[in-house]
Amino acid sequence: MLFDTADDGLAAEMAMLSAVASGDTRRAAFFWSVAAPCLVLPDRYARSETYPQAARTCAAAGWPVTTRKTGGGITPQGPGVLNVALAFTVAPPKGRDIRGSYAEITDPLTEAFASLGIASSAQPVEGSFCDGDYNLAVAGRKIVGTAQRWRGNTCLAHALILIDIDLAPAVTAVQQLATALGHDTRFALDVHSRLADLAAHPDTLTEDLNAALHKALANRAYADWTPASA
Questions:
Q1: Would you say the C-alpha torsion 147, 149, 153, 154 has a positive or negative sign?
Q2: Ramachandran sector of residue 133 (left: φ over 0; alpha: ψ -120 to 50; beta: rest)
Q3: For residue 223, how many other CB atoms are within 10 A of its CB?
Q4: 76 with 61: CB under 8 angstroms?
Q5: Closest by alpha carbon to 197, among 160, 167, 159, 158?
Q6: Quick check: 171 and 187 in contact, CB under 8 A?
Q7: In angstroms, rounded to a whole number, what is the distance separating the alpha carbons of residues 144 and 187?
Q8: Which of 7, 77, 200, 213 has the fewest CB atoms within 10 Å, i.e. is most exposed?
Q9: CA-to-CA distance for 2 and 179, rounded, in angstroms?
Q10: Residue-wise pLDDT tens digits, 39-63
Q11: Whole-number pLDDT of residue 94
Q12: 213 CB contacts (<8 Å, ≥6 apart)?
């Protein structure tokens, strides 16, 4: 689903989390993208005294900023980025298992990529934006970032897939916002990659990836979820 703003997509994810947490839906999957470039960061960053001015500066440069409920760091959104969100409940007494809950989203992505001839693995990638142990990378270069949020025993797992986004301005925008917030982390362009640069058939990548993802998720009993406002 294509949204005008990241706020809309993030709100839809939270609605899906609520639906699964309340028992209205079992295991749900939701794909979405944003029509225009923007930056998204965890809402804890908005508590910084430097945040209002940093956000205004980024917006003036063509990268409006919004916050999200999941963890991680600053990420770009916009054309060329696909978001995949899953919501699922872990039955007691199993409880929360961070490794297992991340595998819940990285495993089907890895399977889908493999069907397209792209071998990926979960690992940290130093110098990448929103780095974490559960990125997906190809030959050491990040193609997917992940994050999650829990509500009781229900998890919202999110993956940001770099399809064919123009990486140079995106990484520059992330760096500018991080610096304006007083962070000293340095991001590198060459530690990121895009599926379009790795796929054997880039002309049909969107269709091929969509089919592969739906197959992998259907095999795990995930059903497509549609926001009530759609």
A1: negative
A2: alpha
A3: 11
A4: no
A5: 167
A6: yes
A7: 15
A8: 200
A9: 30
A10: 999 999 989 999 999 999 999 999 9
A11: 65
A12: 31, 84, 108, 109, 112
